[in-house]
Every structure is written in C-alpha cells, then in structure tokens.
C-alpha cells in the first residue's frame, strides 16, 4: 500500500507518516524502486500508535511499546499505566468535589471542610516529568 493511501485511510498527513518512519516507530517495507510500501500489519501498528498518542504517550515510548525486543518496553508501559492511574484518581477526586460543591450549603467554600480538604489534596504542580510530545 502506498503512503498516500495509508495517509488517506488513517486521516494522517503524508509527512507525518514519513516522520514516524524516520524515527523508527512504524517502518514500512520499501519497493525495489525505494517507495514506502505499507502492509496491513503496518496499518495495524499505525492505529496502535495513534491510540497511544491519544493517551499522551511520546513517540519514543510508543516505539518501545510497539517493538517487542525493546529492552525498556516493560518500563515504558508501566510508567504509562502509572500516569493513567494517577490521572484517573485525580479525575475521580475532581468528580467527587464537583458533585459535592453543587449542593454545598456553605456560602464560602473555605468554610466547608469537604471543600477545603479537596483544595488541599490537589497537587500544585505535577511532579512527574512528562516529556512534551514535540512531534505530530
Ligand atoms: Zn462544601
């Protein structure tokens, strides 16, 4: 499958596919004339790649996840799981707070123990060093 068709099927720009090839995340085969040639397996990997990007993983991390032989693979997956679970816990706290505050009878949130407790539990700054993804 030619790169243009893959780009069309996945809704991704051609230059993005080239970049993912260049950085070794999803590397297609080459035709004898040197053109990129994607198989269904490559397409599958590209879909996994996009799903991983959707949950905030960086390209180096995704490369590790996609390639079974990568020595850091398990570590990368565990770090991402940890990140997702932390985010979920924070979302659940936020949900509990909002459910409470909609019915909170205190005129000032600071006079309410529940509200104050929630405010105190929110981390002021993420202590995780999440590498911003600089690439598409
Ligand atoms: Zn309250």
UniProtKB/TrEMBL annotation:
Signal peptide feature range: none
Residue intervals of the HTH merR-type domain: 1-68
UniProt organism field: Streptomyces antnestii
Protein name as annotated: MerR family transcriptional regulator
CDD domains: HTH_MerR-like (cd00592)
GO molecular function: DNA binding; DNA-binding transcription factor activity
Superkingdom, taxonomy of origin: Bacteria
Listed InterPro entries: DNA-bd_dom_put_sf, MerR-type_HTH_dom, MerR_fam
SUPFAM superfamilies the record matches: Putative DNA-binding domain
PROSITE patterns, sorted: HTH_MERR_1 (PS00552), HTH_MERR_2 (PS50937)
Keywords recorded for this protein, A-Z: DNA-binding
